[in-house]
Amino acid sequence: MLQKIEHVESKVTHYTDLAMNYATEYGLKILGSLLIFFIGKWIIRKLVMLMRKGMERANVDPTLISFAYNAIYVAAIVVILIAAISNLGVETTSFVAIFGAAGLAIGLALKDTLANVGAAVLIIFFRPFKVGDFIEVSSVMGTVKSINLFSTTLTTVDNRSIIIPNGALIAGNIINYTGNETRRIDMVFDIDYKDDLKLAKEVIMGVLLSNPKVLAEPAPVVAVGALAQNSVQILARPWVSVENYWDGMFEMTEAVKLEFDKHGISIPFPQMDLHLKQKES
User: Is the preceding peptide bond at 238 cis, omega within 30 degrees of 0?
Assistant: First the structure.
């Protein structure tokens, strides 16, 4: 009986010593891995925040700042995680292979989504437009509200939000109405063939020159555009600042109509003459 007790005690002592050895050896490795992960994560966050503040001070586009911040942070976290696992004595080559295979599978499954991400990178670096620009794309016009990795949000003039995938956005033509500082207003005014053409041109030019929103350079142009079937078409081409485009066009269109009324210049409209023939009984 005493021998059995001694045998059991020796086994307990053996396993206790073995457990203590493993705890000492792997406990230090686990502690080291945790320190590598958390300290590395803290350092990465500080460095990425410093990079973000530096880009903000350099007036870098906010979309580019957000993209660079997220991409660098995620990549650095993956590196720190692999380093922490490697400190435990685990062979990380297999993990890299697994991550690569998983990345390939995810890429094939989400190829359309990744195409939107690639399109976002092109938009950010080549900058065909930026937040706040008024653009026309995919038969939609609106002000760019936000640009993220997957889509671009436009706000229309009637305050609707339209979300366009970045891949579809760069696949067609992009018209940026506010990409330049100035913009030309194209207006057409019809007058009757019986009206005084020179007087009508003088009236239109007077309206353009009297509007403070019209720029002196380039100078406004008033010219006969076409001799149409029912009217003489006069073209007006004033230049204004981008922010004054709509207000300037509305003001000048109304002013030309009022001046035409004062000078007796008519604006023809389609008419139909009906001739009735009465049949004799």
Answer: no
User: CATH no. for residue 149?
Assistant: 2.30.30.60
Separation of alpha carbons 143 and 247, rounded Å: 17
Task: Classify residue 219 by its DSSP letter.
Answer: P
Same domain, 195 and 156: no
d(CA 61, CA 127): 9
Looking at the domain assignment, is residue 117 inside a domain? Answer: no
Cα(267)–Cα(123) distance, integer angstroms: 46
| DSSP H stretches of helix in the chain | 2-57, 62-87, 92-109, 111-126, 166-170, 197-210, 245-262
Query: Alpha-carbon distance 166 to 153, whole Å?
Result: 10
**For residue 8, what are its two tokens?**
């059991």
Residues 23-46: pLDDT tens digits?
565 666 677 778 888 888 888 888
pLDDT in tens, 203-231: 999 999 999 999 999 999 999 999 988 89
Q: Is residue 53 part of a domain?
A: yes
- The alpha carbon torsion through 247, 252, 255, 261 (nearest 10 deg) reads -140
